[in-house]
Specification:
Keywords: Membrane, Transmembrane, Transmembrane helix. This protein is 34% helix and 32% strand. By secondary structure, it is α+β, with helices and mostly antiparallel strands. The chain has two domains: 37 residues; 101 residues, Kinase associated domain 1, KA1 (TATA-Binding Protein). The chain is globular and about 40 Å long.
Length: 141
């Protein structure tokens, strides 16, 4: 019994140390922790693709810009109808071609890129009237 407990303790300690090393040696981790702790101060940087429509008056919850993927999670107090109306018009206006369009979900392409926008209700414990807007842009290889 004590051998199993010792092995489990060593595994857990190893995981904790690994996470500590990854997050403390990763320059992005400081940015991520800032994003997570101060949602009202996240600003969309100039490096964000200019041809991806951003819903007005939404707050940025998560932002990740990598070489082949951009992920933006917004929170809005507006109704799904208002958000859907915005994206139904703006995605086309920015030059994207729909590959799939449904209520609360848009998939489109442009050149060698794909854009996915989904809208979902926030959990009630967070905000019973709010909605997530998840924008995911990827570059096809």
């Amino acid at each position: 019994m004590s051998d199993k407990l010792l092995i489990i303790s060593v595994i857990i300690a190893g995981l904790i140390v690994s996470l500590f090393i990854v997050f403390n040696n990763n320059p992005i981790s400081k940015t991520v922790s800032t994003f997570m702790t101060d949602i009202n101060r996240i600003k969309i940087p100039n490096s964000f693709p200019k041809d991806i429509p951003i819903y007005p008056n939404a707050k940025v919850e998560t932002l990740s810009i990598k070489k082949s993927q951009t992920l933006l999670v917004l929170i809005s107090k507006d109704s799904p109808t208002q958000i859907n109306n915005f994206y139904a018009l703006e995605i086309k206006k920015y030059g994207w071609t729909y590959t799939s369009k449904d209520i609360n979900f848009y998939a489109s392409t442009k050149e060698h890129r794909e854009l996915f926008v989904s809208i979902s209700k926030l959990p009630e414990e967070i905000n019973k009237n709010g909605h997530y807007i998840v924008i995911n842009e990827t570059t096809k290889d």
